[in-house]
Predict the structure.
Amino acid sequence: MNQQGPSAYDFRQTEKFSSDQNRFLQKIFSDFAEGTVRKLAPLLKSRYNMELISIKTRSYHSYLNSLPDPTPVLVFNINDQVAGFLDVDFELAFSLFERLLGGRGGPPPENQRPYFTDLETTILKIPFLKILASYGEAWQGVQQVEPKFQSLEFNPNAVYICSPSELMVVTSFQVNLAQAQGLLSLCLPFHHLREMIPKTSFDTWQHTSGVNIVSDGAVVFPETIHNAKVPVSLSLGRAELLFQELLTIEVGDTIRLDAEITQPLRVKVNDKTKFFGQPGIKDGRMATRITKVLEEGDEEYDE
């Protein structure tokens, strides 16, 4: 006869998403990956691929204990009650850091110290914050999500955002960057994500959200796409400085650009050069007059 009495059973272990809910999460996290690529590839000036590979549920304690020390962990708040974190393989984080400083973006050497200094951590936050912004943008059209940075830790055991038994959704992505590759994962509370998912079916939500998917997988956008805002920027020129020089810049200093004043200015759409123009003033505000529309075949055309 068993003298130990009944054992506790965690009913949350049986909780799972429905087929519709899984399809919705697949779309949100795929949009998150695409948004991250759009933000980081121009920043790193390198090939950056990010592919969704799995969405799994695990207890907070078991997943956190599976992370090696050190592991860069970006902790963020969704609201006052909900927090999550983003973890990245150390080798991948090193590659991100090296690309930011103009390096080749390879894995760390064998003698590399297993930590980042305070200055290096500040630099590493730049791409991490862009990744965090991409997550918020992936929820546009569903609910307003504005994740707020809380801290960047390197010891997973120092991260406390919920009870050890809390059921979490761990979404993992395979990232290939320059000469390195590794995993990037998002860890968010199961109940939070379940509440975020619309109550309607996935097909109904797709239809009412204004995006239709036809049988061959192509995406058809409605006419309202004409009202979408497209970022347009003007490039006056570029300059390369040593990091030491950058730290000593003060008000009144002059930075010499690589373009002459007589050269046409590059007008960029989504960070791609699409037009040439000349600077001027219109209605009391700085403006640009388009002098050439770049097309395929032009040497300066960015596809």
